[in-house]
Every structure is written in structure tokens, then in C-alpha cells.
Design goal:
Blueprint (H helix, E strand, L loop, with lengths): L8 H8 L3 E11 L6 E7 L6 E2 L2 E2 L7 H13 L1 E5 L5 E8 L5 E16 L11 E4 L1 H7 L3 H18 L1
Parallel strand pairs: 1-7
Antiparallel strand pairs: 1-2, 1-4, 2-3, 2-8, 5-7, 6-7
Helix pairs in contact: 3-4
GO molecular function: metal ion binding; pyrophosphatase activity
Protein name: NUDIX hydrolase
GO cellular component, one term: cytoplasm
Length: about 160
């Protein structure tokens, strides 16, 4: 029995495509005036949704280095990424042919130490520093919302 009988070819492809892996940077800084963390969010180039810098694997480069490279290229920020992922989230990556591919994203916290004036995707995205609560509201993926929330709890615990 074929479970795909009567289902369109594009939907069949979506179910048969393996989950792809990506790496992302959860970029943060501590606001001098308040001592509170701020999270960097940016808009995606295609849909304009609020996201964090992320990208595909780069050869044998470790995930935390890929995340740092994506943060530089997409948002012009430089910092020190943690070597271990802060967490993961999944989402559906829309491809040019209208098919969505499931992606699992390993997220690495990156404390931003500087910003550069010129970077690869300058002018192609909106970039903003916001509170963790605002970042949670802006991103669409429920798992990413939770990851940001749990990450921000690190700072509450150290002040409490």
C-alpha cells in the first residue's frame, strides 16, 4: 500500500526529503546603561520575517565557527561563539521551487564584541538589538522562542 496515493508530487517530495542541518548564532550583548542582555534579530531576505543569523554547513568548519561567520556576513557583528550549542530548533525552509525542506538548526550563543561598517549583506536586511522578550515575540518558530527565553534566564539567574 502506498501512503502517498492521491497526494501531489510536491507534497510527496516534502515528506521524502531528509531533514537538513544548519547553524545559527544567537547574538547578544549586555546593554551598558541597564546591564540587561539584548538580542540581535534581523529580517530574512526572502520573506522579511524576524530571524537570527544562520546558514548551511561550510565544509569541515565546526558549527560554532559557521555560526560566527553567518553573524558577520548577515549582520556585521563579531564576537566569541560558545563551542557547544545553546539548543536547537526546527523550521521549514522554503526553496525556490515552492517545496519546503525540514531543517534542524543548531544554535550557538555569540557574545558580540564589535560591529563592522561594511559586510556582505549590508542593506539587504533590517537589523535591530532588542530585549529577549521582544526577540521572543518577533521570531515565528515556537522552539526558537523557547530557546531565546531559556537563554535569557541565564542572566536572571546570575543577578538573582
Amino acid at each position: 500500500m502506498n501512503i502517498f496515493t492521491g497526494i501531489s508530487d510536491s507534497v510527496q517530495l516534502m515528506f521524502r526529503r531528509p531533514r537538513r542541518g544548519q547553524f545559527a548564532a544567537l547574538c547578544y550583548r549586555i546593554a551598558e546603561a541597564t546591564g540587561e542582555p539584548e538580542i540581535l534579530v534581523l529580517t530574512s531576505r526572502d520573506t522579511g520575517r524576524w530571524v537570527i543569523p544562520k546558514g548551511w554547513p561550510m565544509g569541515d568548519k565546526p558549527g560554532h565557527e559557521v555560526a560566527a561567520q553567518e553573524a558577520l556576513e548577515e549582520a556585521g557583528v563579531i564576537g566569541q561563539p560558545e563551542n557547544q550549542p545553546t539548543g536547537t530548533y526546527t523550521y521549514q525552509k522554503g526553496l525556490g521551487d515552492g517545496v519546503a525542506v525540514p531543517c534542524q538548526v543548531q544554535v550557538y550563543a555569540l557574545r558580540v564584541t564589535s560591529q563592522v561598517e561594511n559586510f556582505k549583506e549590508k542593506g539587504k536586511r533590517r537589523i535591530e538589538w532588542v530585549s529577549p522578550a521582544v526577540a521572543e515575540r518577533r521570531v515565528h518558530e515556537p522552539e526558537l522562542k523557547r530557546l531565546i527565553h531559556h537563554f535569557s534566564q541565564r542572566f536572571s539567574a546570575t543577578r538573582g
